[in-house]
């Protein structure tokens, strides 16, 4: 009932830990962008709806990427929204390419960076050519790991590089968020042919990393579990194992277990509601009071990527089908 | 309230942040950044004024103070609830139209007082006491026919509402209400009000915990607990409470009481009870809660 740590924290730390100021600031921004709303409904009502939408996780819909990734709650909400909106892709068994998944992501977040989608696709396709077809669930769980633990994975990549080049793990200096260093894809690709690094050594470094990492990282006990099953592993082998781990998915708390991904009758109704909103976005956003705090986007930007969805992808399965196999062996 | 430095989200900063997407392309056309910057500053300035004027700044400051005072587990849900309540009592939703009837006004006052009382847990002394004072002021405000001050009737009604919302069985809390209620026409001073509120909230938590304890003792098949075991637990609890009354200094008494309630001595007492006596009529949840609450209520000093 009581949590003494929470009560003992200095004010600023308490507020920072729970991102209170992030949301308050954003609420003010939204208010300034929707001044006409407050003359109609009042400020208190506006804030009530804003904070309720944050609680429900609908606040990230159609927002800019910088906001979507600003807090762990926003990231989890985005993952959930993505799953809820496009679950039918998985239900129909459609296989899509990386570019097509990227279009789906951009429907919810117009400036979603391609780089992140590419990285997620590399996890599914094990760093192979990224124009292959992927199942929805494979992509979703890989994307979840890549998106939610983005900063953590940057550091992991750096550590992996250092281990490959034979550096002493104790002298590893982890770059906080320099994405430049980790851009050396060819090096990683070659490395994976040398069967990666030794798992126990890798774990020691990661444990150390988890301790001092300021961003979210997966529960260390589960990372240990993943790494204790193997002798050696590659970077992408590690990411695949993370993305397929039930416990990590549960700890993250945004998505259901893989088995429950497709059937949820309550969600179907919800989905109907959301789908009605998406194509005719402008009208519904400004009309529905719930979405009044969302910025209205130009219809062309949001609606245009909708098209590629209607390609029937099932027929031309000309790729290696590797994702299908992994998918079926799981379920 | 102690002077807490309030880190208000800077509207200026927020505004600049927000403007960036629209400003950047403009900066691309004009080679010198200065005109754009000064325009941004001007926009920010006017937005800050706007926020001041419409009262956003003041409203957020107050909200943030409440968050810091109560330190809720989920501050975002807390804020949603906070603004929702504020919206309900804003002039747009009641004050502007026909003046509400006396009864409705009274209900609104009670609702507002309850909301303040629930903002912070009673163990957060300062926050809780502040909220009690605010609730007292809400209830004491004079109305058209009402004289300022809190009367016993309103106070009793508030106590009843708290107990009812606390989901404690009525017969369990009734003895407490009899003890701490005032007469309908009596004026209730703040000190009595505060003590009453705190006692009431503490009892509700006590009953909730006793309920949890009972669930552990309960035989799921019978929907009742072994009387010997239940009684042994209650006796141990009584012993611990009495140990708390002894003449030694307060910290020692708490330690003594705590050690009597420790799992080992409790297990010993339960074990002894089962061996020594024959099984009697099973004990129901209501009986257990009533007896446990009675131990607590016996310690409460009656009003007056």
UniProtKB/TrEMBL annotation, chain A:
InterPro entries: CSTPP1. Its main location: cytoplasm. GO terms for molecular function: protein-macromolecule adaptor activity. It is found in: Cytoplasm, Cytoskeleton, Microtubule organizing center, Centrosome, Centriolar satellite. GO terms for biological process: cilium disassembly; microtubule polymerization; regulation of protein complex stability. Residues 293-331 are annotated as: Disordered. Residues 318-331 have a biased composition (Acidic residues). Keywords: Cytoplasm, Cytoskeleton, Microtubule, Phosphoprotein. GO terms for cellular component: centriolar satellite; microtubule. Regulator of the tubulin polyglutamylase complex (TPGC) that controls cytoskeletal organization, nuclear shape, and cilium disassembly by balancing microtubule and actin assembly. Regulates the assembly and stability of the TPGC and thereby modulates polyglutamylation of the microtubule, which antagonizes MAP4 binding. Interacts with PCM1. Interacts with TTLL1, TPGS1, TPGS2 and LRRC49; the interactions link CSTPP1 to the complex TPGC. Binds to alpha-tubulin. Belongs to the CSTPP1 family. This is Centriolar satellite-associated tubulin polyglutamylase complex regulator 1. The gene is CSTPP1.
TrEMBL record, chain B:
It comes from the Eukaryota. Gene3D superfamilies: cAMP-dependent protein kinase regulatory subunit, dimerization-anchoring domain. SUPFAM superfamilies: Dimerization-anchoring domain of cAMP-dependent PK regulatory subunit. GO terms for cellular component: centrosome; synapse. GO terms for biological process: adult behavior; chemical synaptic transmission; cilium disassembly; microtubule polymerization; sperm axoneme assembly; vesicle localization. Pfam families: TPGS1_C. Residues 106-301 form the Tubulin polyglutamylase complex subunit 1-like C-terminal domain. GO terms for molecular function: microtubule binding; tubulin-glutamic acid ligase activity. InterPro entries: DD_TPGS1, TPGS1, TPGS1_C. This is Tubulin polyglutamylase complex subunit 1. It comes from Loxodonta africana (African elephant).
